[in-house]
Hints:
This protein is rod-shaped. It folds into 3 domains: about 5-85, Arc Repressor Mutant, subunit A, CATH 1.10.10.10; about 90-160 and about 260-290, 3-Layer(aba) Sandwich (D-Maltodextrin-Binding Protein, domain 2), CATH 3.40.190.10; about 160-250, 3-Layer(aba) Sandwich (D-Maltodextrin-Binding Protein, domain 2). Helices cover about 45% and strands about 25% of the residues. The chain is α/β, with parallel strands linked by helices and about 300 residues long. Strands 3, 4, 5, 6, 9, 10 and 11 form a 7-stranded mixed β-sheet that branches. The longest helix has 29 residues, at about 60-85. It is built from 11 helices and 13 strands. Helix 1 (about 5-15) packs across helix 4 and helix 2 (about 20-25) crosses helix 3 (about 30-45).
Amino acid sequence: MEIRALKTFLTVAELGTVSHASKKLNCVQSNVTSRIKALEDELGVELFARSRNGMMLTPAGAFFRDYAQAVIDAETAAVASVRNFSNAIRLIRIGSMESTLAIRLPSFIAEFRAANPSVKLELCSGPTDDLIPLVLDRKIDVAFIGGQFRHPDLDAEIAFSEEMVLVTDKSISHPGAVGSMPLIVFKPGCSYRTYAQGWMRKSGLAPNDVIELGTLEGILGCVASGVGATLLPRSVVESSRHRPIVNIHALNDPDRFIDTYAVRNATAPANGATDAFIDLVCRARTTPEIITPDFGQRRPA
Length: 301
């Protein structure tokens, strides 16, 4: 049973003639007649009594009319609910790398909630490789990941650009002094870990060991204690309470800037909440100059 047939039935019942119904429905009279006939055949009853003066509902047609109207009302409400949801601020499920969630996103979350007090936020953190499947499976609406990830079902916008730096305890005065110190990093799947290990290899440094930790403060605490070295975004280190007790070493590496992307599933239904939050974050992107003292180079943040 088609929605179009029910709408045609209700229009004929309201106006009383096929010709008037065809004008309101913007179709030819034969289409109106064929839809009514097909509906009657499907139901196995006559819905209208035909006469020279028009069409009147039969008892069966009058009984069926309320049910047909209920179906049309339900269809209208269903369509409206989806359309409203695409523009309404209802729910945002945000996934993010821990560093981005800790340093970059809090101010945006606060601003967004102040402007949209009815918003509901669900937050989770994890490495890039864990966040991508969550977006593809529609378990989160947006993920903030490190580095570009190409997939036909993903839309991506640059949200931030992070400058990677080497971080050591105060006794290390230059990158070469790192030698074979252990490299302290997040678990596999983290884009910053991938960069750190690649930079160590390119620089001819061979750490004896890789130490995996689960938190930024844990990593920086161990670095400050001389347990090992790490590579992290400058913004993370500068914001940490450990900043006074660690050294930051700028890198002479053209690839040291890693973009953070806001990615979402391009095949997911429209969600106005997600769109609004991503717009807020990405519109605020600025390009201040960062001066790297070791090499005197400048690069947009």
